[in-house]
Amino acid sequence: MRIGDFRASYAHDESLLITRVQRSWMIGFVGLLLIFPWVGGSYFTYLACLTGIHVIAAMGLNIVTGFAGQISLGHAAFMGVGCYTVAWLDKWGVPFYITIPLGGVVSALIGMLVGIPSLRIKGLYLAVATLAAQFILMFVFREWDSVTGGVRGVNIAPAQLWGWVINTDKDIYYLIMLCAGMLLLGARNLLRTHVGRSFIAIRDKDISAEVLGIDLFRGKLMAFALGSFYAGVAGGLMGYFYRAITPEHFTFTLSIFYLAAIIVGGLGTVLGTILGAAFMTLVPEVLRSVVTLLTLWAPNAMELLSPMREMVFGALIIAFLIFEPHGLVEMWRRARRFFHLWPFKT
Amino acid sequence: MNTRRHALKSVAAATGLSALGLPFTTWAQSGELVVAAAPPITGVFAFAGVGLNMGVNDYCEWRNEAKGGVMGRKLRYVSEDSGYKMDQAMAVFKKLMAAHKPPVFYGDSTAWAKAASVEVSQLGTTLTCSPSFASDLADPDKVPYYFMAGPTYASMCAILLEYINSQAKGGTKPTVALVYSDTEFGRDPIEATKERAKKMGLNVVQEIVTKPGSVDVSAEVAKLRRARPDYVIFHGYVLAPIPEFIRQMREAGMTSTQFMGTIWSMDKSTAEAMGPVGDGWMGVMPYRYSHDTKDAPAMVTMNQFAQKRRPDIKYVSTFYTHGWLVGSIFAEVMERVLKANKPLTGPNMKAALQTMTDWDSGGISGLPVNLKGHQIATGRIYRFDANAKLFEPASGWIKTA
Question: Which CATH number characterizes residue B331's domain?
Fold first, then answer.
């Protein structure tokens, strides 16, 4: 049983992974991520890519909503902005390592614009304002034919790096994981900066934060900009992942999906974002696999049980909210505490 | 007994592994031909998806029973619900492709078809189809391994226009209004339809775009009342807001205006759901309705098998017929490739598909089927008789390409 951490220097105290055990786990996890496409097969690699994209986008929403307390219902549209920026730049032959960050930047600018009302309104009113942004941007995606391809959408050429064509799930997996790793690290560190702390202060009590000298307008806009940047990058990656994009990819349902992911995972935590996005992506797959297994005994099980699957998924989310309002991250922490103290306390 | 146990264990293991998404290709290698699918059994397209799934499944079962499969190789249908969500449909596609390496795959939507076409073109192993009739997809050069078991939406509207044009009395051509939903589905055929109408000398007097399930249509109806079209073509809807349009226009005294739709609003169940305003509802259908079995042996076979396999089903829907036709085209393509002693690759199956220029569908389609352009550009106008609760033919079979 480990009973405490002894930190002998400021550098040690500031490090993200304090103990050797944590570092070992992280090395193991990164190693697993590196070999995953080689052992996981195309289906699991596809799911890992999808989860990676959802993790990045959900992290963006968690910065806006979980860290800074600003509700956004237009997150999917910000993804769309990033994706269409990538698609448009791609037509001019701009390489992916420029298009993806630029997609994020354009999305951040739009996000800041949408965030302007946040100084005057909050709560449900802000939710409605961001909802309006979702529908306005969807309208733009459908109507701006020359850039977005209208309702028929656009095709995006595969990303290339020095002649290496990134056109398989296995290849793009590494690009997605690299982006996810960097952005999650950025989000983790953000919380340790004055900017991140100002977000939390704004979330907890904005009037008190202002009294303490925090510029509310700047802080809220920055939260929207950062969150939208993450969404834009996720959208750009989604573009390279599917390579055929229509406005139907960025519907309001997707915005709700991300909101559910961060609530189920845990608001205001990086780990919660990962767990929530993974839960929302993978649980429907698991449930479908269960239904498929049941067809062994009942050939018509798919037709009968598929609608039940949606209900079970919904019930699972409700159950989490009732029995663990702090999200999956709290369950993870409890499990860790259990093993830290085992066998002396169970 | 041991053999049976062994077989059962194999089945269990195969299904179990497949359910978990792990590769398991022994069956395919041992001679079975896998027909894989990601039908939308749940979600907004479930009204059709259940029937589509049954149709493809039952065709495979019938083919195995009646003809011993394809060239002596049994067909095995594997499917998982897509929920009509593109990412889930792609997940099912990846899963089944990895687990079974199917030569043919049936998807769930336009979005899926477009996204999957990128990978399918890259792999060059699989011929695909889906319930989407999007005009972009009937392009053998850009989407080489995709076909549709019916006309594109643009071709459907062209068939409607051919019929409307044929109803011209004297020198006066009928006028047309287009009402469509603000979706990819709704907008798909509009430009081509307007162009075709212009060429035919038909005047499109009004064009109205609505939300897919729009409820308040009084403003739109007012526009139609002013335009007084002879025909109103609805596209991009399944049911709502069509009945509301018809009701309000009938109440406004427009009794001579004829209302028409395309494939997804033309099933018997949809027309019945319209209530009294459904009487006289017309539209284009690429297949015969299941009650129309004259000179259609395939329809008789299909109905009999559906009765035997699913005795609880009272009515064989057009969605089921679509699935059955998809299964039969898949089987025919594979048979042609195998007969030529060629491997079941994408290019070989595409070539075989394009040789189907005069194929007999057994009466499912009233004309010989031509799939050279990766679509079946034929259909017929039907009119719903609310008393008989049946769609009856209002025209002969019309070919547009």
Answer: 3.40.50.2300
